[in-house]
Specification:
The structure is a single chain. This protein has 15 helices and 24 strands. The protein has about 475 residues and is α/β, with parallel strands linked by helices. It folds into two domains: about 220 residues, 2-Layer Sandwich (Nucleotidyltransferase, domain 5), CATH 3.30.420; about 200 residues, ATPase, nucleotide binding domain (Nucleotidyltransferase, domain 5), CATH 3.30.420.40. The radius of gyration is 23 Å and the shape is globular. It starts with a strand and ends in a 9-residue tail after the last helix. The relative contact order is 0.13.
Length: about 475
């Protein structure tokens, strides 16, 4: 029985799964926390120490290949000898907001960036971090001759720091200086940000091999955690993923990169050779938590209250823009509550309005993708709030499609392991190419899930959306296009 491993280095820990190469069955797992991070910077050696701890006690014995997933948008700046110039900057670093605005203006606006790379710079992007370093640490910036992202750097370390540096399409598309549409770097944007050129990793195809460790283990291309999780879940064309964090994200799988003039869609590449258009919202579970605190309860209590109400919340509508909003672009707005009447002013109706408002805001993001031709036939709902009864009851009808809630698992690590099996099969010729000559990935089982159908509630969900849309458009006339 062949074995492959996938490791996911998140902002908090390293998780490793060892899987059967053919079936994807998890054989064993490892875990180790990262040292507590103080702020948006870290010494990458901490990632290696955590990896070594997670892989202890012979976890990788018998493994033939390893795939690496890691947090997106991190920046590891290196000098001419491949040594760190300064600690790595993490994806959650928000200090570059003014640098992002500066970059946007330098290239001629949001539309120019969307046309160039399929995304508008945010504080999180590595290209923005380069501009921030050039402005705030010019001496360090001048020493940077090479940049990597976390999964690139970890793979390079596992390989013994060879002369060849590699990344994958998914990781490259998150940098802000690689175009998913053109499948090429934009070194002019690196120079625009940093002031000089740097060495950039070679971009491998989905089944590519980064190299072999001194012990003979194959290291696959690796990818960012979003792309790895999508691959581990087994999502494909026709699937969308709605992730419920404090903020929200919605992505689909598409056959081409989408250029969105106003930058609402971020055009990532995925880990399979396709594309992964993403729409972000500023508000998701923070809407539920804020309402729960107002009502003196927790998320479970909020869900129980909402289930005592009925669809439409007795006419009460919450516009969930508590932290401004990215979709639509309303950075300085605030949330609001509409339709309050004496009979609707009860805790259960407010709870229901919060759940429906959050889901309708995410449905607006789904509609942005639908409006650009992205097929959405089912929705994978991720995050702890996806387990709430009120969310599961309302989501299928509000989204208008089947909703799948996967059981909790290490999907990013599983995606990395599946990528390792793909690269191993391609290298050994054990995976047959399809009619187009493309080596397909191994067919591992889809995630174990609960499935919820809109069923008879679909017309009710449409009515909820219509009620929400009427309030939204009255409050923000002309903001939403025809897809909204």
């Amino acid at each position: 029985m062949g074995k492959v491993a996938g490791l996911d280095s998140s902002s908090e820990s390293t998780r490793i799964v060892v899987c059967d190469t053919d079936t994807g069955a998890v054989i064993r797992q490892g875990y180790a926390p990262h040292p507590a991070e103080k702020g948006p910077e870290v010494d990458p050696q901490a990632w290696l120490m955590s990896l070594g701890e997670a892989a202890g006690n012979g976890l990788l014995e018998g493994v033939q290949a390893i795939g690496v997933s890691a947090q997106q948008h991190g920046l590891v700046p290196l000098d001419a000898e491949g040594n760190l110039v300064r600690p790595a900057l993490l994806g959650n670093d928000k200090r570059g907001q003014s640098a992002a605005a500066d970059l946007i203006d330098s290239l001629g606006g949001r539309s120019a960036w969307a046309q160039a790379i399929g995304a508008v710079p945010q504080a999180t992007h590595p290209v923005t971090k380069l501009r921030w370093l050039a402005r705030t640490e010019p001496a360090n910036a001048a020493r940077i001759t090479e940049v990597m992202q976390p999964h690139d750097w970890l793979a390079w370390q596992l390989l013994g720091r060879p002369a060849r540096r590699t990344t994958d399409r998914g990781g490259a598309s998150a940098t802000g200086f690689w175009s998913a549409a053109d499948e090429a770097y934009r070194p002019d944007l690196v120079e625009l940000a940093l002031g000089h050129q740097v060495r950039l990793p070679e971009v491998l195809g989905p089944s590519g091999t980064a190299g072999f460790t001194p012990e003979g283990l194959l290291i696959s291309a690796g990818t960012g955690d979003t792309m790895a999780a999508a691959f581990g879940l087994g999502v494909g064309v026709g699937d969308a993923v709605v992730s419920l964090g404090a903020s929200g994200s919605v992505f689909g799988i598409h056959h081409e990169a989408l250029v969105d003039p106003d930058g609402t869609i971020t055009s990532f590449a995925d880990a399979t050779g396709r594309h992964l258009p993403v729409v972000h919202t500023s508000n998701a579970v923070r809407v539920l938590r804020g309402t729960a605190e107002m009502l003196g309860t927790d998320l479970e209590g909020l869900s129980e209250l909402a289930l005592k109400s009925s669809p439409g919340a007795y006419g009460m509508v919450m516009l969930p823009y508590l932290e401004g909003e990215r979709t639509p672009h309303l950075p300085h707005t605030a949330g609001s509550l509409h339709g309050m009447r004496r009979e609707s002013m009860k805790p259960e109706h407010l709870a229901r309005a919060a759940v429906e408002g959050m889901l309708c805001g995410l449905a607006d993001a789904l509609d942005v993708l639908r409006g650009r031709g992205v097929a959405v036939r089912r929705v994978f709902l991720l995050g702890g709030a996806a387990e709430l009864g009120a969310v599961q009851a309302a989501a299928p009808a509000v989204f208008g499609v089947q909703v799948v809630v996967p059981q909790p698992a290490e999907y990013a690590a599983l995606g990395a392991a599946r990528q390792a099996a793909w690269a191993l099969g391609a290298a050994h010729g054990t995976l047959a190419p399809n009619d187009g000559g493309w080596v397909e990935p191994p067919q591992w089982p889809s995630a174990a899930s609960q499935v919820f159908e809109p069923g008879e509630e679909l017309p009710v969900g449409q009515a909820v959306r219509q009620q929400y849309t009427a309030v939204r458009d009255e409050a923000y006339p002309g903001v939403f296009g025809p897809e909204g």
